């Protein structure tokens, strides 16, 4: 099932209008959400739309939030998302970071009282058109066990860094701090296939290849997989994301982060408000002339892209290459949807009297 | 062979004075270098002292540099290390970051024309006493192959992040962006043991367990180890460190980073000056009151430390725990040196007429 981008965008926007989002918010949120589908991170796109709606029904998402700065210095701010869609709160906060960078070279914004913000890369890439480097982190509901822990204490806590180049397309890293994203496990689950060791542990904290291991009380593993392969580093990275996003802002952190699924209740004794994000913007010319930076980035990218590949691999990729290729393809050729996702959208459309 | 900390410090300082470092620089450099030995990162401590001296002989290290800011905004700077010891250049740059953070909330400093700076964690931890979060990155000579590359294009490019807490000791992550640090391979080489798969590839870019694989034209692998286990994420992290440290500052990047070993010549056509570092300092109270932040960091640390451990592991560790324990032990009990390292220091002492 392939749907044209514009059709899916209009549908998403109209659903968001129906739950009470203002026009500009509905448009922005649809743009953010669909950037995931365009870039091939299907688990974070329209597949989640009905999940957002269920959170709104539970009054855990505020469709018309009063997002505001609650603390600031020339280069920093804390933003209170007022329980809004992360899809709207995050671009607000990133714009604050960009404005601060215009004034003093860099801007750093930690966000509380927000919700799931789509793909990390959308927000970091907002910096690119301003000749800035963008950073975007978020915490998320606990699915990941620290090294040596049976318990799940961290989310997949992604890191995205977007770096402008000159003639070359930008460098855009966007990655969960786990060995494998949850979306990859879902693919294996549907195919009833095993996962490689290093992706999941079981409910006793032992290595397992069961792709359903997380659902059975196990956990995703931090990047590295096990101690011998550096899982303590993935654990540290996920922790840094959690602390920058939530301990700095006053959001919930670690095991207290509210679940995305509406059928699980948030902790009755939260340690903060909603979930947290962290954004950064650094003006390239706050370090050296922009043209110098860009020509060296072009040189960097070309040198890495032209490295001698290992057998069976056509070439060395630059972070962002696969997603950019897919975006080009899907913008013109449409977005493939899995049957259950398509049916879920149809049901949503029926309910709100919106045609897909 | 165990040597008291003070004895090793005095020896190191006197050697550095002999090559022409000013008194304060020699003291600072000895402090930075020996912090590696104290914290158990033996590969980055006094074991490298004779290597620094050999670089000085080759005039690739300037013992009396004029380190200066060459570009700045209220929250950023580029520092030119004048080919000085990274052990001295890095603390200078970190102090600049801290001063900027005092003024505008955060400070970000990219450094060119420097050399190896010891352990990343020394510099990030400088922020702690100011109630700031500290960041420290550096690039390094190319030993690491990007995912799908036969060629070595990145250094072990470490990331360190130090975060203050209240009653609990600070969170201090300090990690190479590879699966395993080179020091761990050296231990296996001495024992003539194999490395686990995922640490090293051979000269054809194929997985190998040969602990000497890097010396034979292979490469260290990025954190993740292989594509299935997220090596593209480790590759992206190492790249971000390289770009922030060198493309932002005007240092050499990727395969152009000058080798640490004096017997290998730097590239005759460099793309920048020396090697690069990147530092950040963020005032905690630029986001929320310091006491709030610290009490939540204590809560974060206690919750993670008290997580239910997996069988056979006594407890979940917080980044920085093992190094702090070792530092306490070695400050009082002395620093163990391997025989070849001890003999190397004796030879150095003979040459400069300095007693160990």
Automatic annotation (TrEMBL), chains A, B:
Protein's name in the database: LDH2 family malate/lactate/ureidoglycolate dehydrogenase
Keyword Oxidoreductase: yes
Top-level taxonomic group: Bacteria
Family per similarity comment: Belongs to the LDH2/MDH2 oxidoreductase family.
Spans annotated as Disordered: 307-330
GO molecular function: oxidoreductase activity
Matches recorded under PANTHER family: MALATE DEHYDROGENASE, OXIDOREDUCTASE-RELATED
Keywords: Oxidoreductase
One Pfam family recorded for the sequence: Ldh_2
Biased composition (Basic and acidic residues): 321-330
